[in-house]
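We emphasize that the prediction below concerns an isolated chain of 260 residues; any contacts that depend on oligomerization or on bound cofactors are therefore not represented. The input was used exactly as deposited, without trimming of termini.
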Amino acid sequence: MITRIFKTLTAGAIALAATLNITSCDDVNVSTRQLCPSYVVCYVELNSIVLWEVQNTTNCILIHHGNDPVVYYALTSTGKEKEMYDSLCRKHNDMNYNKYRSFMKNIPYDSVTYNDCDFTSIEISSDTDFDEAHPAGTNLSDMVRFMSYSPYPFIMSGYKSYFYYDSAAQSESFNNYMPFYIGGEAFRSETAATCYPIDKMVKDLVPEDLILVGHDGPGLIGMLCFEQLPSSAGEHTITVKIYTDNDKVLSNTIKMTFSQ
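Result of the prediction step, given as a token string:
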């Protein structure tokens, strides 16, 4: 499972680089060091999502940035793109980080990158009856957990309050599945992390939970985990809709086969 996810991420990174016409290995390998007034170095425009079923599970879905042409707003941008970057930093009260970072030449999103919109809500539904209380088309938000990360609490603390992982404070699903999302280092209790977990049933999410969703890089947005299975085994076409604060509805479907 881990191999598949990270191979896909690598392929996605290559595709992003190709979109930006980055062809020289020398260009890619040269890094630059720059003072970063904001924690977030780059924002990438989000216009669509894709869904992947997590291998070796029957109840988890990864939400990933869609395969759109790359439009980014970065610390290194100029003109209107830099104006957009600055406005997004102001929006997130991210103006006083003031630390030096090194990042690869011509790839502004290789450092700390987030989507250019925040989410307001998430909806999940099936084309098939899930159980007696959830006929086809019903919102399954009380059946599904959303799991991801966000640096927003760290930013709002004035860049002072770090997160330290404690398995007892997280759900069983988070502890079981999220190591496939982000890797083991974030799950060490001694690691001072800037990204805080998002670990809630979808019905309990509020817009503030969904600010700067991700983990310091483009691509993966989060994971959905069905905490309850349908009343009978079989295939369901699951629809996921994400509503954003810039009035977009990002939607896609995935076929899942649930077993009992």
